[in-house]
Amino acid sequence: MRKEMPYRVLVTGALGFVGRHLIDYLRYQRLDMQILGVDLERTVPEGVTWSYKSVDLADQDTVFDILQEFSPTHLFHLAGLVGPGTLAAHITANLFITDTVYNAVARLKTRPKVIQAGSAAAYGWIRPEELPVVETQTLRPIGPYGMSKAAQDMLAESYCRGEGMQIIRARIFNLSGPGQSRAMVPMTFVHQFREIKNGSAAKIRTGNLLPTRDFIDIRDVASAFFHLALKGQPGEAYNIAGEREIAIKNVIQMLIDHTGLEPEIEVDADRARASDIMRIYADCSKIKKHTDWHPGISLRQSLYDMWEQLNADS
Question: Rounded to whole angstroms, what are the CA distances from 243 to 99, 239, 299?
Answer without folding.
Answer: 31, 10, 11
